[in-house]
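Structure request: Delta(24(24(1)))-sterol reductase, Penicillium cf. viridicatum.
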Amino acid sequence: MIQSTTQYYVIEFSGYVDMATEVVTGDDEVLQQSSDASFADDPGTRKLAQGYLMKLFSRAIMWQSSKQKTVTTSTTEAELLSLSHTHRDPSFSINTPLYQGAGTMALAQPSTGKTPPQAPTRRKSPKTASAANVSESKASTSRIYRNGERIDGWEVGTDPKVSASNEFEFGGNLGTSSLMIGFPLLMWYMWIGATYYDGKLPLPEEGQSWGEFGRHLVELVYTGAYPSLRAWRIYWTFFIFEAICYCVLPGVWAWGKPLPHENGKQLNGFLVAFVAYFSALWRGAQHRMTGYPIYDFFLGAELNPRMFGILDFKMFFMVRIPWFILFGLSCATAARQYERYRYVSAEVLFLVVAHYLYANACAKGEQLIISSWDIYYEKWGFMLIFWNLAGVPMSYCHCALFLANQHPSEYKWNPVALAAFYVLYLFVYWIWDTANSQKNGFRAQERNQLVNRKTFPQLPWQTVKNPKTITSSKGDVIMVDGWLGYARKIHYSCDIFFALSWGLITGFKSPFPWFYSVFFTIMAIHRAVRDARRCREKYGEAWAQYEREVPYLFIPYVI
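Returned structure:
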């Protein structure tokens, strides 16, 4: 048989033909040249190639010519598929079932000695380019997973509906049961103290038994905190209005991390906990279930529930509801103070500015949170639902609630000290905003999906050009530059500073404004420790190198 060189196009796709790479084979070597071509503008070619590939292959396959088997123009497709599955990337292995969203397929084409025509390049429509300024190519991951590999709680080759982990967080069934009962009771208790006890801890009066005291608290909740029809109308009108805006107003489409257990599906971005849990079970949409109903109800059953294919519940509940309710409550505090005293104190204005900056940051960087741990990994259960609908707005607001119930003279700051506090807060906000922008923007840049939005405020150093990185043995990349080159969790430090500031502005006459400060500090430290453990498992020696190069966790040169 006369051997000849054969040209192939290895096509990477994520549910559709997306990118093409030219592969030229000879007797002993494989040469790969990236063409950055796409079939998106040629529906006929795209349909033909996609149908051909999907018909032949149910999993991603890569091939390589070897000295034992030379690929020729007469090599059949079956022979092509039988070739060794190897790659220079150490994450690839021979004869291993593959699980990946961006598969890799091969189409043969005899060589004519001429340069083959390139596939048409995808073009951006002028309207889309000017409106969203989206990067030109959608990402397709080249990561291939082996059977038995652990990926964020899922073991490749096993049922993703069943948790592969034997670890239980939050104290397992007993701990999660206590949290589900204790947190609502704690919120009522704090509200009673702020409203009826002048910000002090509610305690039994002299001669009052604990039983009488408990009945008294229940009576206060029933008479003062029982949901009224007016409150329901206000809350659900706001909720539905936000949901409609989420679905119909112009916005930015973005891609999240591929979900390996969903064949690489990517994220673009009711009484609720019960509906979410049982509807997921009914639809068979549960994920990483442990078999312990209470624990699973707390953490959730479904990973990324959606309505109408647009309304992503986790993203909507995390951004659109809690922080805007909190900002609304701080504005209501300012309105109440103006109504009473005909002016708004600088301390109340501080909270309005602080809560505005936080809510605004959530809105302007909304497309970046889809690659965050909460969206990518955490399931949609009682923990996220209750905390976003009730915990954040109704417990973090106690700083504003205290100022609303007290005369301004009770918490008045020295004007010079307060002015310096404003400046310090804005400086820390700049670090926090740009650190998060650098971190999330780097992940988007990796996949050529960075969206440049002209949002307010536009701050310097939001992205790092050509950042220094460390690559793990599996091909995962860690950014070791920008603010993350000074401290690994510097953005957590800023969050802790915000929490402490919201308590500090109220003084020390009431413990309730400090609930968020203490709670969030503990939570942030716990999450930092958990993240470090998870990153050591995921990145291996690369993470150890990052810790050596950036030894500070929270504050540069301090801790």
